[in-house]
Amino acid sequence: MLSVENVFKTIEEKSIIHDLCLNIQAGDNVALIGPNGAGKTTTMKMIMGLLSMDKGRITMDGFSVRNQRKQYLNLVGYVPDEPFFYEELKGEEFLRFTADLWGEELYVDNENLINETIDSLDMRRFLGEKIHTYSLGMKKKLSLLIALIHQPKLLVMDEPFNGLDPMTVYAIKDYMKRYVNKGNAVLISTHMLDAAEHFCTHVAILKDGHLLSYQKTKNIKKQGSETLEAYFVNLVKENEK
């Protein structure tokens, strides 16, 4: 599925990402965690083709983000930390506007799945309202709906649980679990280590652009750490400059 191979990124002569390698397969639910400034958002943006890499290769099912952009982007969906909306539109209008950008045929082909997702996220009763009236949780759900319009195989989410109430967090996590169980994959960045520990199958830890660890979440306790938080803190301290 997703392959990140030996990726480097420098911004204003500062190394942001150094020799990053990740491999995400169908059924994986991966948390990308790290201190502030570790390079998480930069990594997300490079995976989505929003930021170019200096060196390396990123592919999705063999399609290159750099050289086969259309085929690549057809396979991935993105939920940014702060999504953009035309807030004077109703939710259903913005959803249809975004769907039209993908093409009428794609919307028709995926309409049943789109409706299923709307109901799964309990958004149908809100789609007739203008977006500026939405809560943060409703906006996050709408952003998730938009990311899933073209039924991507990989969903990339930057800080998906920030500022959300417990019921919204539960609804999003529940949907994402079912999405992964269908043979798709999820990559999230998060500061919520407890959520990552109990929700994600794999954890990748970044610090200063270096990948310190990438492994199955269940293996962390086997290495002597009681929690992901304890493992994370100890690993980061061991790698302080």
From TrEMBL:
Alphabetized Gene3D superfamilies for the sequence: P-loop containing nucleotide triphosphate hydrolases
The entry's keywords: ATP-binding, Nucleotide-binding, Transport
CDD domains to which the protein is assigned, alphabetical: ABC_DR_subfamily_A
SUPFAM superfamilies: P-loop containing nucleoside triphosphate hydrolases
InterPro entries (UniProt xref): AAA+_ATPase, ABC_transporter-like_ATP-bd, ABC_transporter-like_CS, ABC_Transporter_VariousFunc, P-loop_NTPase
Domain of life: Bacteria
Record-linked Pfam families: ABC_tran
Domain ABC transporter stretches: 2-233
GO molecular function, one term: ATP hydrolysis activity
UniProt-listed PROSITE patterns: ABC_TRANSPORTER_1, ABC_TRANSPORTER_2
Protein name: ABC-2 type transport system ATP-binding protein
Organism: Shouchella lonarensis
